[in-house]
Amino acid sequence: MQTYRDVDWDTFWRWEIFRRRLDPVDFMRWKADSSRALRGLPQGGDRHGRAPLLLDATCGLGYHAMVQRRLGFRVEACDSNQRVLDFAAATFEEQGLDIPAFQADWTELGRHRPERYDLIFNDEVHQVFPRDALLDVLRGFHAALRPGGSFVFFYADAEKPGNGPGHAQWDWEHEQRERRAWSASADGLEVSLDVVLERASDTLILEHHNYSIRSDASTESGQSMTMPKNYYWDWSHIVPVLEQAGFTDLESHHFVNVHGNTFSMNLATRR
Question: Quick check: pTM over 0.90?
Fold first, then answer.
Protein backbone atom coordinates (compact mmCIF):
# COMPACT_ATOMS: atom_id res chain seq x y z
CA MET A 1 0.00 0.00 0.00
CA GLN A 2 1.33 3.43 -0.92
CA THR A 3 1.68 5.70 2.11
CA TYR A 4 2.14 9.41 2.66
CA ARG A 5 5.91 8.93 3.08
CA ASP A 6 6.11 7.38 -0.40
CA VAL A 7 4.92 10.56 -2.12
CA ASP A 8 7.43 12.27 -4.42
CA TRP A 9 7.08 15.58 -2.60
CA ASP A 10 9.89 17.24 -4.51
CA THR A 11 8.04 16.82 -7.81
CA PHE A 12 4.73 17.84 -6.25
CA TRP A 13 6.10 21.03 -4.68
CA ARG A 14 8.18 21.96 -7.73
CA TRP A 15 5.06 22.35 -9.82
CA GLU A 16 2.80 23.67 -7.05
CA ILE A 17 5.31 26.49 -6.53
CA PHE A 18 5.32 27.12 -10.28
CA ARG A 19 1.54 27.28 -10.36
CA ARG A 20 0.91 29.21 -7.16
CA ARG A 21 3.19 32.07 -8.06
CA LEU A 22 0.47 32.97 -10.54
CA ASP A 23 -2.52 33.00 -8.15
CA PRO A 24 -1.40 33.10 -4.49
CA VAL A 25 -4.03 35.58 -3.27
CA ASP A 26 -7.05 33.48 -4.25
CA PHE A 27 -5.47 30.34 -2.81
CA MET A 28 -4.73 32.07 0.49
CA ARG A 29 -8.31 33.33 0.77
CA TRP A 30 -9.83 29.93 1.46
CA LYS A 31 -6.90 28.91 3.65
CA ALA A 32 -8.05 31.54 6.17
CA ASP A 33 -11.29 29.91 7.28
CA SER A 34 -9.97 27.19 9.58
CA SER A 35 -7.37 29.46 11.19
CA ARG A 36 -9.97 32.16 11.83
CA ALA A 37 -12.26 29.58 13.44
CA LEU A 38 -9.39 28.34 15.63
CA ARG A 39 -8.56 31.87 16.77
CA GLY A 40 -12.17 32.23 17.91
CA LEU A 41 -12.05 29.18 20.19
CA PRO A 42 -10.85 29.38 23.81
CA GLN A 43 -7.77 27.33 22.86
CA GLY A 44 -6.88 29.92 20.22
CA GLY A 45 -7.33 32.98 22.38
CA ASP A 46 -4.66 35.01 24.18
CA ARG A 47 -3.48 33.70 27.52
CA HIS A 48 -2.70 36.29 30.18
CA GLY A 49 -2.33 38.89 27.44
CA ARG A 50 -0.04 36.78 25.27
CA ALA A 51 -0.98 35.06 22.01
CA PRO A 52 -0.55 31.28 21.85
CA LEU A 53 2.57 29.91 20.19
CA LEU A 54 1.34 27.86 17.23
CA LEU A 55 3.30 25.44 15.07
CA ASP A 56 1.96 25.04 11.54
CA ALA A 57 3.24 21.50 11.07
CA THR A 58 2.04 21.38 7.44
CA CYS A 59 3.77 24.54 6.27
CA GLY A 60 3.83 23.79 2.55
CA LEU A 61 3.77 27.09 0.66
CA GLY A 62 3.23 28.95 3.94
CA TYR A 63 -0.26 30.31 3.37
CA HIS A 64 -1.77 28.99 6.60
CA ALA A 65 1.16 30.30 8.62
CA MET A 66 0.83 33.77 7.10
CA VAL A 67 -2.89 33.89 7.86
CA GLN A 68 -2.27 32.65 11.40
CA ARG A 69 0.40 35.29 12.02
CA ARG A 70 -1.89 38.05 10.77
CA LEU A 71 -4.65 36.76 13.06
CA GLY A 72 -2.35 37.39 16.02
CA PHE A 73 -0.88 33.96 16.71
CA ARG A 74 2.84 33.67 17.39
CA VAL A 75 3.77 31.23 14.63
CA GLU A 76 6.51 28.81 13.67
CA ALA A 77 6.26 26.48 10.67
CA CYS A 78 7.81 23.21 9.59
CA ASP A 79 7.77 20.84 6.65
CA SER A 80 9.82 17.81 5.64
CA ASN A 81 10.56 19.15 2.14
CA GLN A 82 13.35 21.73 1.84
CA ARG A 83 12.26 22.97 -1.61
CA VAL A 84 8.90 24.22 -0.35
CA LEU A 85 10.38 25.49 2.93
CA ASP A 86 12.77 27.72 0.97
CA PHE A 87 9.81 29.11 -0.97
CA ALA A 88 7.77 29.68 2.20
CA ALA A 89 10.66 31.36 4.04
CA ALA A 90 11.24 33.73 1.10
CA THR A 91 7.52 34.55 1.04
CA PHE A 92 7.47 35.28 4.77
CA GLU A 93 10.39 37.67 4.34
CA GLU A 94 8.77 39.40 1.36
CA GLN A 95 5.58 39.88 3.38
CA GLY A 96 7.49 41.21 6.40
CA LEU A 97 6.27 38.40 8.65
CA ASP A 98 8.39 36.99 11.46
CA ILE A 99 7.72 33.25 11.02
CA PRO A 100 10.64 30.90 11.71
CA ALA A 101 10.51 27.94 9.32
CA PHE A 102 12.47 24.73 9.78
CA GLN A 103 12.74 21.24 8.29
CA ALA A 104 11.43 18.48 10.53
CA ASP A 105 10.08 14.98 10.66
CA TRP A 106 6.89 14.95 12.72
CA THR A 107 8.07 11.97 14.76
CA GLU A 108 11.12 13.96 15.93
CA LEU A 109 9.38 17.16 17.02
CA GLY A 110 9.26 16.21 20.68
CA ARG A 111 12.97 15.48 20.76
CA HIS A 112 14.01 18.73 19.08
CA ARG A 113 11.35 21.05 20.58
CA PRO A 114 10.06 19.45 23.77
CA GLU A 115 6.99 21.01 25.43
CA ARG A 116 7.29 24.15 23.31
CA TYR A 117 3.93 24.83 21.65
CA ASP A 118 0.48 25.86 22.83
CA LEU A 119 -1.05 24.64 19.56
CA ILE A 120 0.09 22.36 16.76
CA PHE A 121 -1.91 22.78 13.55
CA ASN A 122 -1.93 19.92 11.02
CA ASP A 123 -4.42 19.46 8.20
CA GLU A 124 -2.85 16.32 6.71
CA VAL A 125 -2.25 13.91 9.60
CA HIS A 126 -5.15 11.72 8.46
CA GLN A 127 -3.06 10.78 5.43
CA VAL A 128 -0.45 9.00 7.61
CA PHE A 129 -0.68 5.21 7.41
CA PRO A 130 -0.32 2.50 8.75
CA ARG A 131 -1.35 2.67 12.40
CA ASP A 132 2.15 2.41 13.86
CA ALA A 133 3.30 5.30 11.69
CA LEU A 134 0.39 7.45 12.84
CA LEU A 135 1.07 6.58 16.48
CA ASP A 136 4.72 7.64 16.13
CA VAL A 137 3.65 10.95 14.57
CA LEU A 138 1.06 11.65 17.27
CA ARG A 139 3.59 10.91 20.00
CA GLY A 140 5.94 13.40 18.35
CA PHE A 141 3.24 16.07 18.44
CA HIS A 142 2.26 15.21 22.01
CA ALA A 143 5.83 15.61 23.23
CA ALA A 144 6.22 18.98 21.45
CA LEU A 145 3.12 20.44 23.16
CA ARG A 146 3.21 22.18 26.50
CA PRO A 147 0.97 20.61 29.17
CA GLY A 148 -2.50 21.95 28.40
CA GLY A 149 -1.60 22.50 24.76
CA SER A 150 -3.79 21.21 21.93
CA PHE A 151 -3.22 19.35 18.68
CA VAL A 152 -5.50 20.65 15.90
CA PHE A 153 -6.44 18.17 13.15
CA PHE A 154 -9.02 17.72 10.41
CA TYR A 155 -11.10 15.27 8.36
CA ALA A 156 -12.43 13.18 11.28
CA ASP A 157 -15.74 14.33 12.76
CA ALA A 158 -17.26 13.23 16.08
CA GLU A 159 -20.74 13.71 14.59
CA LYS A 160 -19.94 11.19 11.83
CA PRO A 161 -17.73 8.69 13.66
CA GLY A 162 -17.67 5.89 11.09
CA ASN A 163 -17.97 7.85 7.87
CA GLY A 164 -14.60 6.99 6.31
CA PRO A 165 -15.79 4.46 3.68
CA GLY A 166 -18.88 6.57 3.00
CA HIS A 167 -16.79 9.67 2.39
CA ALA A 168 -14.48 7.76 0.05
CA GLN A 169 -17.46 6.39 -1.88
CA TRP A 170 -19.02 9.84 -2.21
CA ASP A 171 -15.80 11.32 -3.57
CA TRP A 172 -15.36 8.40 -5.95
CA GLU A 173 -18.87 8.88 -7.33
CA HIS A 174 -18.71 12.67 -7.61
CA GLU A 175 -15.14 13.49 -8.62
CA GLN A 176 -14.01 13.27 -12.23
CA ARG A 177 -11.99 10.11 -12.85
CA GLU A 178 -9.81 11.95 -15.36
CA ARG A 179 -9.42 15.72 -15.52
CA ARG A 180 -7.15 18.56 -16.50
CA ALA A 181 -6.46 20.10 -13.09
CA TRP A 182 -4.60 23.21 -14.29
CA SER A 183 -2.38 24.74 -16.90
CA ALA A 184 0.10 27.57 -16.34
CA SER A 185 2.78 29.44 -18.28
CA ALA A 186 5.81 31.24 -16.84
CA ASP A 187 9.58 31.47 -17.23
CA GLY A 188 9.49 30.04 -20.76
CA LEU A 189 7.56 26.94 -19.68
CA GLU A 190 4.03 25.75 -20.32
CA VAL A 191 2.97 23.17 -17.74
CA SER A 192 -0.28 21.26 -17.41
CA LEU A 193 -1.42 18.73 -14.83
CA ASP A 194 -3.74 15.84 -15.65
CA VAL A 195 -5.12 13.81 -12.73
CA VAL A 196 -6.35 10.22 -12.99
CA LEU A 197 -8.12 8.59 -10.04
CA GLU A 198 -7.77 4.95 -9.00
CA ARG A 199 -9.92 3.27 -6.33
CA ALA A 200 -7.38 1.18 -4.41
CA SER A 201 -9.65 0.10 -1.51
CA ASP A 202 -12.83 1.15 0.27
CA THR A 203 -10.84 3.83 2.15
CA LEU A 204 -8.07 4.71 -0.31
CA ILE A 205 -8.18 6.65 -3.59
CA LEU A 206 -4.96 7.21 -5.51
CA GLU A 207 -4.50 10.42 -7.48
CA HIS A 208 -2.03 9.87 -10.31
CA HIS A 209 -0.55 13.25 -11.28
CA ASN A 210 0.85 13.51 -14.80
CA TYR A 211 2.70 16.73 -15.66
CA SER A 212 3.29 17.78 -19.27
CA ILE A 213 6.06 20.33 -19.70
CA ARG A 214 6.85 22.29 -22.87
CA SER A 215 9.69 24.80 -23.12
CA ASP A 216 10.17 27.78 -25.44
CA ALA A 217 12.61 25.63 -27.34
CA SER A 218 9.64 23.36 -28.18
CA THR A 219 11.10 20.49 -26.21
CA GLU A 220 8.57 18.37 -24.34
CA SER A 221 8.93 16.26 -21.25
CA GLY A 222 6.81 14.81 -18.50
CA GLN A 223 6.85 13.89 -14.85
CA SER A 224 4.50 11.73 -12.80
CA MET A 225 3.80 11.10 -9.14
CA THR A 226 0.99 9.60 -7.07
CA MET A 227 -0.85 11.17 -4.16
CA PRO A 228 -2.77 8.79 -1.84
CA LYS A 229 -6.02 10.09 -0.37
CA ASN A 230 -6.67 8.09 2.78
CA TYR A 231 -10.18 7.98 4.28
CA TYR A 232 -9.50 5.41 6.99
CA TRP A 233 -8.94 7.78 9.93
CA ASP A 234 -12.50 8.76 10.67
CA TRP A 235 -13.38 9.56 14.29
CA SER A 236 -13.96 5.94 15.31
CA HIS A 237 -10.49 4.89 14.13
CA ILE A 238 -8.33 7.88 15.04
CA VAL A 239 -9.56 8.40 18.61
CA PRO A 240 -8.00 5.18 20.01
CA VAL A 241 -4.64 6.11 18.45
CA LEU A 242 -4.82 9.63 19.88
CA GLU A 243 -5.59 8.22 23.32
CA GLN A 244 -2.72 5.75 23.07
CA ALA A 245 -0.42 8.67 22.23
CA GLY A 246 -1.51 10.37 25.46
CA PHE A 247 -4.12 12.87 24.27
CA THR A 248 -7.31 13.61 26.20
CA ASP A 249 -10.37 15.87 25.89
CA LEU A 250 -10.99 15.07 22.23
CA GLU A 251 -13.54 17.38 20.65
CA SER A 252 -14.93 18.38 17.25
CA HIS A 253 -15.86 21.90 16.20
CA HIS A 254 -17.27 23.03 12.87
CA PHE A 255 -16.66 26.01 10.62
CA VAL A 256 -18.02 27.20 7.29
CA ASN A 257 -15.50 27.92 4.55
CA VAL A 258 -15.57 30.68 1.95
CA HIS A 259 -17.59 28.45 -0.41
CA GLY A 260 -20.31 27.85 2.21
CA ASN A 261 -19.27 24.26 3.01
CA THR A 262 -19.11 23.02 6.61
CA PHE A 263 -15.96 21.27 7.83
CA SER A 264 -14.84 19.79 11.12
CA MET A 265 -11.87 21.06 13.12
CA ASN A 266 -10.79 18.81 15.95
CA LEU A 267 -8.70 19.34 19.06
CA ALA A 268 -6.89 16.88 21.30
CA THR A 269 -5.18 18.06 24.48
CA ARG A 270 -1.99 17.13 26.27
CA ARG A 271 -2.57 17.02 30.01
Answer: yes
